[in-house]
Amino acid sequence: MTQHRKGLVLDFGGVLTTPLLPAALAFEKRAGLAEGALLTGIYLNPEGVRLTEDLERGALTQTQWNEAAGRLLGVEPDNLMGRVFADLRPQPAVIAAAAAARRAGVRVGILSNTVGLTPWNLYDGYGLDTLYDAVVLSEVHGLRKPEPEIFRLVLRELGLSAGECVFVDDTEHYLPPAAELGFATVHATDPARTVAALEALLGIPLTEPAPEPAPEPAPEPAPDRAIL
User: Fold this and answer.
1) DSSP category for residue 109
2) Which end of the chain, N or C, is surrounded by fewer C-beta atoms within 10 Å?
3) How far apart are CA 31 and CA 41, in angstroms?
4) Using an 8 Å Cβ cutoff, are 204 and 101 in contact?
5) CB–CB of 53/135 below 8 Å?
6) Residue 182 burial by Cβ neighbours in a 10 Å radius (0-12, 13-18, 19+)
7) Phi/psi at 114 (nearest 5 deg)?
């Protein structure tokens, strides 16, 4: 018999939000950068990678990152992180599924590599403190995914073992370290597929059934011409 999981750990950006890449590409266009300049300059350039990892661990403030990344990209640093991800929006299907899981008794946590909390806060408006059972943000703890200790930390916050939990992330290379600890893992590439995978792993429905269409009114009877 399949043993269904009773804990759910969700990444934030790209899982509870719309995908990161289209937002980054839209920023490049607004900033007059060549396509791929942001990804190459920040996420492939060793200096950019170091800056971002330091930011995620809380060793660098968002303002410091803005200044350094602005120099690397040749753009104005003011609120750069907020400008890069200005097009991110909530991902309603996954947010609703997380809420449904929690109503069904599943413990739900957030595990996120942060991008700084000021001057721009990625998490504003998502109700993390009230809608989830545990929230682990990398900069608060000086740890970042894929380090095993940050996965252990969210498990302690949830009071569950890895073998009892599912971990969802849009960054594929964060999944194997979680799987090694015992998590079931889901690569978030499409909201509907993510929700379907979670339904199978948790053993509960996470979507509302579509309402049945209202019956069409019966046609009016034809008038009886004999009495006209």
Assistant:
1) E
2) N
3) 14
4) yes
5) no
6) middle
7) -85, 165
Query: Counting every residue, how long is the chain?
Result: 228
> With 60 as the cut, is the pLDDT of residue 144 above it?
yes
At 150, give phi and psi (nearest 5°): -75, -30
CA–CA separation, 105 and 203 (whole Å): 12
Strand order of the β-sheet with 7-10 is 134-137, 107-112, 7-10, 165-169, 184-187
Report the mean per-residue pLDDT for the chain. 93
The residue with tokens 């269904």 is: 4
Give start and end residues of each alpha helix (H) in the chain: 20-31, 37-38, 46-57, 62-73, 80-84, 92-103, 128-131, 138-141, 148-158, 175-181, 191-202
CA distances from 10 to 24, 26, 46 (A): 21, 25, 28
Question: So what's the pLDDT on residue 116?
Answer: 96
Residue 176: HSE in the Cβ half-sphere, 13 Å Cα cutoff: 2
C-beta of residue 108 within 8 angstroms of C-beta of residue 71: no
Q: What is the distance between the alpha carbons of residues 90 and 36, in angstroms, rounded to a whole number? A: 24
The answer to whether the predicted template modeling score (pTM) of the entire model surpasses 0.70 is: yes
Distance CA 92, CA 78 (A): 30
Per-residue model confidence as pLDDT tens digits over 175-214: 999 999 999 999 999 999 999 999 999 999 999 654 555 5
DSSP summary character for residue 90:
B
